[in-house]
Design brief:
The protein is built from 28 helices and no strands. It has 387 residues and is an all-alpha fold. About 3% of the residues have low confidence.
Length: 387
């Protein structure tokens, strides 16, 4: 420790020497020195930030630039005053100048530094941070980017765009923004999925992103994420679906029908214990679509009534499930289907179940039965006695 600390001043002298190989070697050694957390604190007394920031934009020596940025990352972690010094010295402008043409390894280091800087609320709300958004989104379109870059860039964008004032300055079109995000929703990495979904949620706070047709492409991957049972990711995906369903209810309903159909054909039952919020969003979208006769028939054909009755039996989402059943059975063609006759006994059992506490659910179940009995002859079915 003592010997290492004595290296600090000589290494800084090398960095200041203006002799190319000496500067590069000095920065690389200094960066290694900072692997020791105690030495990071020790070097805080030396004014090296301006020196390193200047070297980042000093030329085309990528090894030197990478070493400078790695050093700044180590100096800046959890040290807001040091981060502010970097921003004041112009590190954001220097990094953005390099970003479009830098090799991917250097891009990843730049993204990590920007992520660390924007982790400070003071910086993330600044005009300097707002300049980061568009360049990062454009690099995210590159086919060769690494998971490391994706994670750092997405986290930096979340840090910035969770502040409403940053969203208002964003000039990118929905295609430039939503398209790369969809690929992150389908990433094999759960942290990337989480960050991509969080970022999408922030963007959907802007009406023009919510209403753009490109946004509908995010629905299917969001429905998948909402059903995988990872609570944080599920909640974020459900929130995004709620936002999208305000402008595109049919897209959410169609994706939910497709997912439901797939699961039922695979012989599975949905386990609703951890997915109630997900199903509620889907049911709201279904309800808006159930007024269309062809949509109501499609839902019934793929087994929607069975799924809704399962929900009532398990006492989950009782009110939206009952509301959708009542709406479906209000359709004359749906009442003529075999599935409708099979619904009488489960609805009666739901009403007789002592665990049924939802008064609105009970009322809607009664209304659903009333709709069913408009079908001629159905009131004389054997199950109707119980009802």
């Amino acid at each position: 420790m003592l010997i290492a600390s004595e290296c600090t001043e000589p290494l800084i002298s090398l960095i200041q020497s203006d002799v190319g190989p000496a500067v590069e070697s000095g920065v690389c050694a200094f960066e290694k020195l900072l692997d020791n957390e105690r030495l990071v604190e020790y070097t805080a007394d030396y004014d090296v930030v301006d020196l390193l920031v200047g070297l980042v934009f000093s030329g085309s020596n990528n090894r030197l630039i990478e070493a400078c940025i790695s050093t700044l990352i180590k100096l800046g972690k959890d040290r807001t005053p040091c981060k502010l010094d970097m921003v004041k010295a112009g590190i954001i402008d220097n990094c953005l100048e390099l970003l479009p043409t830098a090799p991917i390894e250097l891009c990843s280091l730049i993204a990590e530094l920007l992520c660390i800087l924007t982790n400070s609320s003071v910086i993330s709300k600044s005009l300097d941070a707002a300049k980061i958004v568009e360049p990062l989104f454009l690099v995210l379109l590159r086919p060769d980017i690494s998971l490391w870059f994706q994670h750092s860039a997405l986290q930096a964008l979340v840090n910035i765009l969770e502040k409403p004032q940053s969203l208002t300055t964003l000039q990118l079109t929905p295609s430039q923004v939503i398209e790369p995000l969809i690929s992150f929703l389908e990433s094999p990495s759960q942290p990337i999925q989480q960050l991509g979904t969080e970022l999408l949620n922030h963007l959907l706070a802007q009406e023009h992103y919510k209403q753009d047709i490109m946004t509908t492409n995010a629905v299917v991957p969001l429905v998948r994420l909402a059903g995988i049972g990872i609570l944080d990711l599920q909640q974020t995906a459900v929130k995004a679906l709620e936002n999208i369903s305000l402008s595109w209810p049919k897209a959410v309903a169609d994706a939910s029908v497709t997912t439901l159909n797939h699961r039922m054909h695979c012989g599975n039952r949905l386990h609703f214990s951890t997915r109630e919020s997900t199903i509620t969003v889907a049911l709201k979208a279904f309800f808006q679509e159930s007024c269309d006769p062809s949509s109501a028939e499609l839902m019934t054909e793929v087994g929607a009534t069975d799924a809704l009755l399962d929900l009532l039996r398990s006492h989950k989402c009782e009110e939206p499930s009952g509301r959708l059943l009542e709406s479906l059975f209000n359709n004359m063609r749906v009442r003529e289907m075999k599935a409708s006759k099979k619904a009488i006994a489960p609805l009666a059992q739901y009403l007789l179940d002592p665990q049924t506490r939802s008064q609105s659910g009970k009322l809607l179940a009664v209304l659903a039965l009333g709709n069913l009995f408009q079908r001629e002859g159905l009131a004389r079915a054997s199950d109707s006695v119980t009802a």
